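Protein modeling request. Please complete all fields; requests missing the sequence field cannot be processed.
Requester role: graduate student
Desired output: 3D structure, C-alpha cell encoding
Chains: 1
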Amino acid sequence: MRVVILGGTGLIGAAVIRELIKHRHKVLALSRSTRSMAMLKALGASPLCGDLRAPDT
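Delivered output (57 residues):
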C-alpha cells in the first residue's frame, strides 16, 4: 500500500513511518524543511519538501 504521512518527523509520525516500513508499505512523507528530509529518508520514507499552507511549494 502507498501511504502519505504529514508530520513524519514528530514522535508519533516517526513511529507510524517505522511501522509502515516494517510491514513493507511505501511511505511518502511531507516535510516543510530540507533539513527534515534527511530524517525522513533515514526512517525509510520517500521525503517530499513542501508546505500545505503554501500550494506553490
